[in-house]
Amino acid sequence: MSSQNYDIIVLGAGAAGLFSAIQAGKRGRSVCVIDHAKKPAEKVRISGGGRCNFTNVNTHPSRFISQNPHFCKSALKQYTQHDFIARVEEQGIAYHEKALGQLFCDESANDIIQMLLDDCMFNNVDIMLSTDIHRVSKRDTEFLVQTSAGNMHCDSLIVATGGLSIPKMGATPFAYELAKQFGLNIIDPRPGLVPFMFGGELLAGMSELSGVSVNGRVDTGQMAFEEALLFTHRGLSGPAVLQASSYWFPGHEIEVDLACKVDALAALKKGREEAPKKKLASILETFLPSRLAQTISEETFPDIRIADLSNAKLDVVAKRIKHWRLKPVGTEGYRTAEVTIGGIDTNDLSSKTMEAKDVPGLFFIGEAVDVTGWLGGYNFQWAWSSGYVAGRNA
Ligand code: FDA
């Protein structure tokens, strides 16, 4: 087996790893990226429904979750969303803005992957795929990486093997284990941007409504999100739910507003005044999807004329719509979670370079680190920004 020397080895050929390798290559450093997957950047490929929501024009540190909310500021400032947009435009990739500042490729996420691979090639970055990493060790100032393709040596090691979400795509706890091996602390990882699951009667009701979507608001007590909410066979999903899941802890209740643009009590009273002979369900249908209107009517005051409902009873119905309190039995977990919250403790890393404070030459970037973005392109921006600073400093 061969033994190769590089200035820098990057572990993980995802968004963060490839981007850091490009920056290091630009500085004339010899760089090799190693990944156990057959193809690079598989998560980029499936992201944004195949169109990759590659950044968000509203990127701001407040859109990131971490034990240290200040940690992400330096990297996000050193390499901004505007820098990445400029690179995308230079490549001639057509893109468009969706709601809330989210930028997507017009054609395909493959355009972003091709851009990354073009940049790797232009900057002489080697990429070794289908390569297992057996062991990493450090002697003096040099790292030894033992792989299924032989032993490799480097002065700087950038770890970009991501978090635990979507294990069937090759996610592993490699970064956490390596961090522990070198004495770094790990903030307990948990799935984020993930649908909620429910049990018992609640689930039965939700699964009947599977496919129904509303403009909802989900409040965890810590943070509330107003976006689309979708009933599924397992419980609740949709952007409002995924966002809230990142702020939810097992055993806690959430509060759901199923008609956040509507004053439900006022709408019910108006309905009673204008169409007293109508059934409650028909009045509810004026501002809720019909299947949901039927369900809420059956659960509260079935088969009754609106005229027969007192203000107090209308208030019960309005509360069921606007302040629906419920307790998820859990989330769908890493199987479907878009991200992993937690990871390598930012206290052990330099926010300016992403280098481990006590292990010179060792860098951690991307989702492996305890910095997690909201839904909407923020996680890729973190991959680009953290990758950029590591690649500039490794
Ligand atoms: P990433 O997980 O991308 O890459 C890690 C790499 O390391 C992988 O190539 C893996 O094979 C490799 N690896 C892991 N363990 C290894 C080991 N032991 N040995 C060797 N190699 C190993 N974000 C966003 O901003 N916009 C979006 O549109 C989406 N959409 C989206 C959809 C879906 C379905 C998911 C699951 C996620 C998203 N995300 C997203 C989140 C985004 O994909 C994620 O945050 C980034 O890909 C993280 O980039 P990293 O490079 O840090 O890890």
What is the strand content?
A: 25-35%
CATH architecture of the largest domain: 3-Layer(bba) Sandwich
Measured between the Cα atoms of the first and last residue, the distance is 27 Å
Helix content: 25-40%
Q: What does this protein structure show overall?
A:
This protein has two domains: 3-189 and 339-393, FAD/NAD(P)-binding domain; 264-310, Helicase, Ruva Protein, domain 3. It is elongated. A hairpin with a 3-residue loop joins β14 (224-231) and β15. Helix content is 32%, strand content 25%. It is an alpha+beta fold and 394 residues long. The chain is built from 13 helices and 21 strands. Bound molecules: dihydroflavine-adenine dinucleotide (FDA). Dihydroflavine-adenine dinucleotide is lined by residues 12-17, 35-37, 42-43, 46-48, 52-53, 133, 160-162, 165-166, 170-172, 174, 338-339, 366-367, 377-380, 383. Dihydroflavine-adenine dinucleotide binds next to α1, α2 and α13.
